[in-house]
Design goal:
single chain; 534 residues; mainly alpha; Growth Hormone, Chain: A; 4 domains; 0% strand; disordered C terminus
Length: 534
């Protein structure tokens, strides 16, 4: 038995709260970077003399690189040491952020975003693993609350902050703002973080064995995640499975076949680069599904609502952000309350169920609205949606890891982080696709009876023609303007119905997740909690 195993536990250099405050900063910075650049795409494309479609590779390249690294963070932490890997990730992320801000061409920016995504992938799992090891079992709820404040608030405020920075300064500051924060986080983590004894022992044990690198597994992972991210990003633009160039179909085949082969290979490899074994534990598997679809609903709603407000309500980016921002404040208030309930022995399963039901109510509330609502009437459904996710986030993370053995915790954290991020990507893509398809559907349906033989349409045309005649004194032009006004009204109503249908879909999605809760094991984070997989 190694000395590391025999030695007493090596605590972090500082109180758990200090450690938590330090490690969530890089997490917040990285999660923010997945959304903050969205609103700056047009400015980035214009500043680098590129088209908006080409500029989208700035997002796709980051997400693909991020997705590749997330599931292998457990392997990297085991071989490099979690503290070393975390510090390396912060340093490279900070440096690549500076390079992104100084890029002089789109090609350079995409390259630096790939590096930034590879480095950023290690921040979320490492910080979450540090929190799980720093806080005792009865305080796991509070630990996940600290992590949740970063993982939940960042995507909520990201688009608003990105729009404000771009409008007031330059799109380059969307990336350069990470530099001073990253330097401070690197110094604090270097001074305060230590690896726990079980990780030290695990690393010493790995050093005694012949080094085995799962190159085939890594290659399969790259194929799967790149195919997946490009398909999600470009699927609607290329018309999904109807793509005449067969790009989407090829990507779908590569993803499905690659994923099947990857799982088959990794489950039989002695030292897998992606460890799928944590998914055998039913609590962890259920929480992975819940977090994936909950974040799909969050990101889908978070992209649909600003688009709805700006396209149909006439809001600018700042006003849309102000309507959405109260949800973030509610999350900050709700999560400590949930953490206290978990600390007092409340079963995490029932909090997850309540949170999913509240999320359902928030999305359904929006789906029943119309174009005559005031800003205040839009704020409250958004508040309800974010409150629901705040209620279920920490309990879902507690339930996920409660029965996961420590030796599999690194792999489990990486998998859950991957699914959380990919849920956001799926939600964004689903919202865009479903909104465009439903817009076409409602445009056709609303136009079925808008013809010269419809009495209501004739009355509208007559009134509109009389109105325009006062300004043009041209009967022919007035008639054309009247029909154009009717077409504009039809388009506006069709677009609004499409947005509201999208929120209805997300409400149905979160409601369907409730079926998983009864199949989970009792999940109470209490002192001396016994971890098992029974």
């Amino acid at each position: 038995m190694t000395a590391a195993v025999l030695s007493p536990a090596r605590p972090q250099a500082g109180s758990p709260w200090m450690v938590a405050a330090i490690v969530v900063v890089p997490t917040f910075m990285e999660v923010l970077d997945t959304t903050i650049a969205v609103v700056a795409l047009r400015y980035i494309a214009g500043g680098l003399s590129a088209t908006v479609d080409d500029g989208e590779w700035v997002l796709t390249s980051y997400l693909a690189a991020n997705a590749i690294i997330l599931p292998i963070t457990g392997w990297l932490s085991a071989h490099l040491g979690r503290r070393n890997y975390f510090l390396l990730s912060i340093a490279v992320f900070t440096l690549s952020s500076a390079l992104c801000g100084m890029a002089t061409s789109l090609g350079q920016l995409i390259l630096f975003r790939v590096i930034q995504g590879l480095a950023g992938g290690g921040l979320q799992p490492s910080s979450q693993a540090v929190l799980l090891d720093t806080f005792p079992a009865e305080r796991q709820g509070m630990a996940m609350t600290m992590f949740g404040l970063a993982a939940l608030i960042a995507p909520v405020i990201g688009p608003t902050l990105g729009g404000w920075i771009t409008d007031q300064y330059s799109w380059r500051w969307v990336f350069l703002i990470n530099v001073p924060i990253g330097i401070l986080a690197l110094g604090a983590c270097y001074a305060k973080l230590r690896d726990p004894d079980y990780l030290v022992a695990q690393r010493l044990e790995l050093k005694k064995r012949p080094f085995q690198f799962d190159g085939i597994g890594l290659s399969l992972l790259v194929i799967v995640m790149v195919s997946w991210e490009v398909m999600l990003s470009k699927g609607q633009e290329w018309d999904w499975l109807s793509d005449p160039s067969w790009r989407v179909q090829i990507l779908a085949i590569l993803f499905v076949v690659g994923l099947v082969v990857l799982v088959f290979w990794e489950l039989r490899h002695r030292s897998p680069v992606v460890n799928f074994r944590p998914l055998r534990e039913r609590n962890f598997a259920a929480c992975c599904i819940i977090i994936f679809f909950a974040y799909a609903a969050l990101y889908g709603a978070s992209t649909s609502l600003p688009a709805l407000l700006q396209s149909l309500f006439g809001y600018d980016a700042l006003d849309a952000g102000l309507v959405m921002s109260p949800g973030g404040f509610v999350a900050v208030l709700a999560m400590p309350i949930i953490a206290r309930m978990l600390g007092r022995g409340t079963d995490a399963r029932w909090l997850i169920a309540v949170g999913l039901f509240v999320m359902t109510a928030g999305n359904y509330w929006v789906s029943q609205m119309n174009l005559d609502v005031s800003p205040g009437e839009i704020i409250w459904p958004r508040v309800v949606l974010i409150a629901g996710l705040a209620i279920c986030f920490a309990p879902a993370n507690v339930a996920a890891y409660l029965y996961t053995p420590k030796e599999l915790r690194g792999a489990a954290v990486g998998l859950l982080s991957l699914l959380r991020n990919e849920g956001g990507s799926v939600g964004t893509s689903l919202a865009q696709t479903f909104n465009e398809r439903r817009d076409q559907f409602h445009t056709l349906r609303l136009g079925e009876y808008l013809d010269p033989f419809n009495a209501a349409a004739q009355s509208f045309i007559a009134n509109a023609r009389a109105f325009f005649l006062q300004y043009t004194a041209d009967p022919v032009a007035s008639q054309q303007f009247a029909w154009q006004e009717l077409a504009n009204l039809r388009g506006q109503q069709a677009s609004s119905l499409a947005y509201f249908d999208t929120f209805w879909i997300f409400a149905a999605m979160t409601f369907a997740l409730l079926i998983l809760v009864p199949f989970m094991k009792r999940s109470v984070a209490e002192k001396g909690a016994h971890l098992s997989s029974e």
